[in-house]
Design brief:
Distance between the termini: 83 Å
Helix content: 40-55%
Structural class: alpha/beta
Low-confidence stretches: 1-23
CATH superfamily of one domain: Periplasmic binding protein-like II
Number of helices: 18
CATH architecture of one domain: 3-Layer(aba) Sandwich
CATH class of one domain: Alpha Beta
Radius of gyration: 26 Å
Oligomer: single chain
CATH topology of one domain: D-Maltodextrin-Binding Protein, domain 2
Amino acid sequence: MKKFLSLTVALLMIFGLMGTALAADDVTTLKVLVRTGDLTPYEPGIAALNEKLAQAGLNVKLEWAGQASSGYPDFVNNMLLTWDENEIYDLIYVQGTAIDPSFLGAQGLLVDLSAMVEASANAKTIYDANPILKAQLASCPYLMWPSQVNKVLQFRTDALKACPSYEAFLSKPDAEAYATLFNELAAQSYEGALTTQGIDYLFDTGVDSGFGITSTWLKQEDGSLVYSRVSDNFLKELQWWRSLYVSGALHANFATDNWESMENALYTGKVAGIAMKGGAYTVYYETNTVANFGEDASLTILPPMVSADGEQQYKITSNKFDRGWVISSTCKNPQLAFDVLDFMLGEEGRKFDLFGVEGTDYTLNEDGTYNLLVNSSETSIYRIFDSDVFGGIDVQAITSGVPYWPAPSFASSEMTAKYGKADNDFVIPEEYVTAWTACESLWKEFATQYILGEKTDDDWKTFVDTWNSYGGDKVTAYAAQTVK
């Protein structure tokens, strides 16, 4: 009898071990590449995420690798184009214009996510509910990044309140009111009202709408299209910015400031505000400005400029976003890789992305709300999706303790949600990419020179003609067939 029991126990142990082995074999390892030089700080979050995925029934283990920011686009492009397929990562985070998912996808190097999103448990709900996100996915179906963070004008509140025209400005923020406000700001002992990083940031912060530029391609009275940066509307906007540069309201270094010098100008009190991305980005601007100048210097997000026709909006790209997740076509189980992304867009995944690891980044209150121990920039996780699209989660309502974001970050997201409209831009076809790059460089150069006074109205026609000769006329003809 004892021998029988011993045999039975032995067999049960063997089958139990076999079951464990089979279960372990069922787990698929997906290689994940992210843009960071050191993953050590995120190891607790990586382990916690793998555990959550297992608990959700996803038999997957994410094996992460980090690559330094410097040279990251070259690394990703080289990997996808030249590496052996067994070496290529499965889930890849991309960032920067030097990585073009549309081009890489057209080469068969990335997975088209359209059908997966349509059949998904979570992603479809988020994309269907937001026309901007849906347009972005349709434009570049290889890239997933449900975000509509936009560039906004963000200014020190103490400086704004010291302006005599500020209250009147809020009731009607048109071009005249904006100019008055900016000149009043510059007169306060600042070197200028604002600066920015990159000439295009001046226009894409809501100022465009004040001059009737509510889309990249503007429809003319005869039904034809014109690219906004060679339109008469844009010339009027340049004239406006030129006047502000002459008066000293636009900081003298606006054309040469990079990211660091722009931030330094704000943090040292050289300017009262900046034209820069909001949402998670504003966390840093707000934190450092308040640290240097006190709570009264907390940032205020200014509304888009209103035109004479009452137009007031941010035009948000319907093109691909400048970052996101792609799945390589060499991935052995692309559906499982997508399921990981889809899980992160569900309630449990979003809360993990937002709040991090229990006990390290937050504790739970008795009512189930989150008592945050750190802010959004200090969590122990490598966030899969940036957090300006919360997936229906009211972050402020369910959190206490350390604020997830400072108030201006939420204000910028709310401003973008209120005034954001899907643009009519599109992915430039491969045959026009080189020409379009030259066209884009040309208008940015001309705009800078015009504001600085190196070009005048007399140079406008030559600029437009040159832009067309560079290939702008061909892309305009393509736009006429593409833009609905």
